[in-house]
Design goal:
Elements lengths: L5 H25 L16 H20 L7 H7 L14 H21 L2 H5 L16 H32 L1
Length: 171
């Protein structure tokens, strides 16, 4: 029988999410899609926007929701947060910069989860500054929601790849 803590499980989710993201990005690059501004014919957000937005998701959950602080990188966060005023366009940042933001927010999250006591994971989001969607959720539920969000966007990367392959076959 495997003995697993909540922390072990969450770190497993971090690793799985990263693997999915890296495989999707590698597949895109192998198929010749290196254009971060590429948007599929469906109109979904550009590849670069999705990659940066995933980093902003980690930033939002850890720094804003859990810690109640401003985002780690306000320029990225407010540029890629995906609110109703965002068009989903790539903002021009190079892939290396986007990856560095993702790596740092993911790393910060791992460091936090490794030291988070169970009481903190059970804490409910009751602060008035928390969005109505998150209000009343336990931290562990917010984390679960975060992985659903991250992997939702991993699915977008796969859809972009499919659209790109179809487009290049037709060209």
């Amino acid at each position: 029988m495997i003995e697993m803590t909540v922390t072990d499980f969450v770190i497993s989710m971090v690793e799985s999410t990263r693997t999915f993201r890296e495989r999707a990005l590698q597949s895109l690059q192998e198929n010749g899609c290196n254009d971060l501004s590429y948007r599929p014919s469906t109109g979904m957000s550009a590849m670069g926007w999705i990659l940066a937005h995933q980093a902003a998701v980690y930033d939002f959950v850890l720094n804003m929701l859990i810690r109640g602080n401003p985002p780690k990188n306000p320029d990225f966060f407010y540029s890629y947060r995906g609110d109703s005023s965002d068009t989903g366009d790539w903002k021009g940042n190079p892939l290396e910069e986007i990856q560095a933001y993702y790596d740092s927010t993911e790393s910060d999250f791992i460091l936090w989860i490794e030291s988070a006591p169970v009481e903190e994971l059970n804490r409910r989001m009751d602060e008035s500054c928390v969005s109505p969607y998150h209000r009343g959720m336990r931290i562990i539920d917010v984390i679960s929601d975060m992985f659903a969000h991250l992997n939702h966007h991993n699915g977008h990367l796969g859809a972009i790849n499919g659209d790109w392959r179809t487009k290049t076959r037709l060209d």
